[in-house]
Design a protein that fits this description.
By secondary structure, this protein is an all-alpha fold. It has helices spanning about 5-25, 35-60, 65-85, 90-115, 130-155, 165-195, 210-230, 240-255, 255-265, 270-280; strands at about 30, 35. The protein has a two-stranded antiparallel ribbon. It is globular and about 60 Å long. The termini are far apart.
C-alpha cells in the first residue's frame, strides 16, 4: 500500500472518529462563544496540535510532541471544568484525576526525550510533512477519544452525590495510576545505571509484565469511564469507547507492537531475554514471581 493511500485512510479514520464523538456531545446545552461546548473543546484539541506541529516540522524536532499532548489534556479538561457553574463532586474528581495524570506523564515523557535526545518513533517521519502531521493529528484523536467520557461527564448535569459505581471507578483509577507511576519510575531508575541498547529491564513490576505502564494506563482510563458512567445518557454512551481506544492504541498500534519489535531487534540474541518473553505476560501482570 502506497504512503498516499495510507494518508487518505488515516485522515478518513480521523474525521470519522471525530464526527462520531462529536455527535455524542450534541446533547450538551452549555456553549462556549456560541458553539456547543463539547464541539468547541474538540476544535481546541485539534488546533493546538496544528499550531505546534508547524514549528516542530520546520525544526525537524519531536521533543515537544508528548509534552503538547499532555498540555492538550490539561487545556481541554480545564475548558470543560471551568465552563460549568454548578460543579459536583464527580466533576471535581474527574478533573483532578485527569490533571494529575496528564501533568505527571507529560513531565516524565518530556524529561525522557530531553535526556535521550530523540524519540525513535519519529526518526523518519519528522522529515516528511504529511507523515509527521499524521502523528500530530493522531495525538489530537488520542486526546479527544481518550478524554471524551471525562469531558462529557463534567459537562453533563448530575446530582451532587458519590454513588458506589463512582467509588469503584476511583479505586480502579488509583490502582492504574499507581502501577503506571511506579513502573515508569523503575524504568527511569534502571536506565540511570544501564545502557538500554544493551540491557533490558526485567525487575520490579517489569518482572510481572513486559509493559506494566501500559496496563496501568488502560486501568486508570477504565476507572474514569466507570466514574463517568452515572452521568451518561442516550447517545453519550458512545464515549465509553474511551478505554477501548486506549487499549487498541497501546496494544495494536503505536505502543506494544512497536516496542516489542525494537526489543526483539536489540535483545533477540540473548537467552535471558528469550526466557523473559516466555515467562512474562505481555500486558496483564502475573500475580507471582518466577522461582529462581
Amino acid at each position: 500500500m502506497s504512503r498516499q493511500v495510507k494518508n487518505i485512510i488515516n485522515i478518513s479514520v480521523f474525521l470519522i472518529c471525530i464526527a462520531l464523538i462529536n455527535i455524542a456531545g450534541q446533547n450538551i446545552e452549555l456553549e462556549i462563544r456560541g458553539v456547543n461546548a463539547f464541539t468547541f473543546i474538540l476544535i481546541v484539541a485539534v488546533l493546538v496540535q496544528v499550531i505546534i506541529f508547524i514549528p516542530s516540522f520546520l525544526l525537524k524536532t519531536e521533543k515537544y510532541y508528548d509534552l503538547v499532548g499532555s498540555l492538550t489534556y490539561i487545556t481541554t479538561i480545564s475548558f470543560a471544568y471551568f465552563v460549568v457553574e454548578d460543579k459536583t463532586i464527580i466533576d471535581s474528581i474527574i478533573y483532578f484525576y485527569v490533571m494529575i495524570w496528564a501533568s505527571r506523564l507529560g513531565i516524565y515523557l518530556f524529561r525522557r526525550v530531553q535526556k535521550d535526545g530523540k524519540d525513535v518513533r519519529f526518526e523518519k517521519a519528522k522529515r516528511h510533512f504529511f507523515w509527521f502531521l499524521q502523528y500530530w493529528m493522531g495525538q489530537a484523536l488520542w486526546v479527544c477519544l481518550t478524554a471524551c467520557a471525562a469531558i462529557i461527564a463534567i459537562l453533563s448535569p448530575e446530582d451532587d452525590s458519590l454513588p458506589v459505581l463512582a467509588m469503584v471507578g476511583m479505586a480502579l483509577w488509583i490502582t492504574g495510576f499507581t502501577i503506571e507511576s511506579v513502573s515508569d519510575y523503575q524504568k527511569r531508575a534502571f536506565r540511570k545505571d544501564n545502557n538500554p541498547s544493551q540491557s533490558f529491564i526485567h525487575t520490579g513490576l517489569w518482572a510481572r509484565s513486559r509493559h506494566p505502564n501500559y496496563f496501568g494506563e488502560i486501568t486508570l482510563w477504565i476507572g474514569i469511564a466507570v466514574i463517568a458512567l452515572n452521568t451518561l445518557t442516550g447517545v453519550e454512551y458512545i464515549t465509553l469507547i474511551s478505554p477501548v481506544f486506549v487499549y487498541v492504541l497501546l496494544t495494536r498500534m503505536s505502543g506494544i507492537n512497536l516496542l516489542e519489535s525494537i526489543a526483539d531487534e536489540r535483545y533477540g540474541d540473548l537467552e535471558e531475554y528469550q526466557r523473559y518473553k516466555r515467562n512474562t505476560p505481555v500486558l496483564i501482570p502475573k500475580l507471582s514471581k518466577d522461582k529462581k
